[in-house]
Design a protein that fits this description.
alpha/beta, homodimer, 12 strands, 6-stranded mixed β-sheet, 6-stranded parallel β-sheet, DNA-binding
DNA sequence: TTGTACGCGTTATCAT
DNA sequence: ATGATAACGCGTACAA
């Protein structure tokens, strides 16, 4: 028997045949179920090594309905914020023996449905999702089908859904207070055009933090650099004497800053800019970005924890569910 | 029969029962194999819709040995270059009905082995990998086991391996020529500490492009911002009159630039810096980064194409395998 | 401590 | 055009 070709991978059966026991015994050893002698154990493990046997996850999953795989679904893969979350989720998953899928929906509603469908078929053990649009539409049907999901920054009320949130409203408040504290009064916000009412924490935080004599001014754009550029354009059109801006995320804040620079407006002297996320770039650009830092590390850990709790049927611990944020003061405000 | 609970997902059997045909017929319709009447087709598809039946990929994969899933394995998820490649791979994969796994190895050799093992078990149809260390060690055993892989920027000679490369040596040459053309003569390179001889395209390109009267000066550091900082430190120690630097990637170039800024050295007047990759940030920082642009879009497309060719047993097309790179001139050099 | 029989949901083979 | 039966590789229930 040659061992060099593209032969079929060894199965439980092959190992059993080599050792001279039943497949069931090999299965017991491999899964460490107990109920076998030490001698058998040794011989089986040796054979496993020799044949480089690996359990077939699909065959196993067909029975156990577990795949040891979770997925992270984010709107865009090109926003560093989401990849940094992915990094954290992956580490947290790895520590408990879970693999992580990373899928992006391209900020496209239909794509989100397709992605969730696909994950459903692949029988992932659970999904962590930064949802698009209203939660009810795409997520609930899948939850109803039995797909367990942790939804970020969005309240949920379903036995197959859990929530993990950052204190975005608090963050927005901190941003406004910082702007006010530095003497800014003509404030505007560049918000995300696609976020539904139920997830407008930043907007409500922003508006609520304004003193009574300041009118809320909010424009909505796509959540990327170009959106930031267009956002500042529109704000300046609406209020030419603008002196402070809060952006939905750092990418938009970066876009706004660059547009201001291009117009010859000095940041922060003439207009101060505060972002949200604290992605890695934000410390590197010039002027470096003042921003609300979201704790991606903890977000990933909490999300995986919540997913495991959901899987194992543990009750929701209403405690540590809202992750605090931090104002990072740099040059832009 | 209630449709609200956490019932088992509908199976081929359930659909067959509703329609009143055999499971095999339903399978035929679902997979569009032909061999059924139009009337049957209609009725089956209606039932599929009604029961929201989705094929179980694991059961299917158990027999077809296909999962319609590929994986991308990169050293780090936090380097925008790799996520931008991932974005491209995902789009290319999606167009041919493939799902994409994204896994990172944390620049850790053992992790790479573990990740490949895991992907192997999950029976992915193929893997695109930015390898760590020598190709022989971790990759060949898996290739030998039957895992088909496309390896980036690394020559391969195995029936289960293919290569997709960018013209990195050419890029390095362009970088050097640009530095020379702007009057720089005291050149140094900050290389990647972990890249094995077989993958040092940038280094050889750099050294070969130097005129005879310029001694190659190369230091090796980790491929991140801090590595860039340390790299420029060491270069300046070795050659205090340094006036031009080529970095392994943009992250390192960014780190070097920041360190120079911190030391009060003017970039590019005193020292010019050229990076490699052209990640999104590079256009945003100040001074913006002159760099060798790698075509991530095409890299992803070619990699997926190569993987499909490998899967389908098509011969290697030696043609379009090396992807050209472009010098992007900005402020830093 | 170990083995046997069955089933997971699908596709392949062969028959009708 | 359609169906019956086996097979993929594993875990579960139960028997020995």
């Amino acid at each position: 028997m040659s061992t060099t070709g593209t032969e079929r991978a060894a199965t439980l059966h092959d190992v059993a045949a080599v050792v001279g026991v039943s497949p069931r015994t090999v299965s017991r050893v491999v899964n460490d179920e107990g109920g076998f002698s030490d001698a058998t154990r040794r011989r089986v493990l040796d054979a496993v090594e020799a044949l480089s046997y690996r359990p077939n996850i699909m065959a196993r999953g067909l029975i156990t309905r577990r795949t040891s795989t979770i997925a992270l679904v984010a709107p865009v893969i090109s926003d560093p914020f989401f990849t940094e979350v992915a990094d954290s989720v992956q580490r947290a998953a790895r520590e408990v023996g879970l693999n992580m899928f990373f899928a992006s929906t391209d900020d496209d509603f239909d794509r989100q449905v397709a992605v969730l469908d696909s994950l459903d078929q692949h029988a992932v053990d659970g999904v962590i999702v930064f949802p698009l649009g209203e939660i009810s539409e795409p997520l609930l049907p899948h939850a109803e089908r039995g797909l367990q999901m942790v939804v970020v920054d969005t309240p949920t009320e379903h036995r197959n859904l859990r929530t993990v949130s950052s204190d975005l409203a608090g963050g927005a408040r901190m941003a406004v207070e910082h702007l006010l504290a530095t003497g800014r009064r003509k404030l505007g916000m560049i918000a995300h055009v696609n976020s539904p009412p139920e997830r407008r924490w930043r907007e409500t935080g922003f508006c609520n933090a304004l003193p009574d004599d300041i009118e809320p001014l909010v424009v909505r754009e796509s959540a990327d650099i170009d959106g930031g550029r267009r956002g500042i354009d529109r704000l300046l059109e609406l209020r030419p004497d603008l002196d402070g801006v809060f952006a939905y995320n750092d990418l938009m804040a970066l876009g706004a800053t660059r547009e201001l620079k291009a117009r010859g407006v000095d940041v922060p002297r003439e207009i101060a800019v505060v972002g949200c996320d604290d992605i890695q770039i934000s410390a590197l650009v010039s002027p470096s970005l003042t921003t609300i830092q979201i704790d991606r590390e903890r977000l990933g850990i909490e999300a995986v924890r919540a997913l495991l709790a959901l899987r194992d049927g543990e009750p929701e611990d209403s405690a540590g569910s809202v992750i605090p944020v931090t104002l990072i003061c740099r040059e832009s405000a």
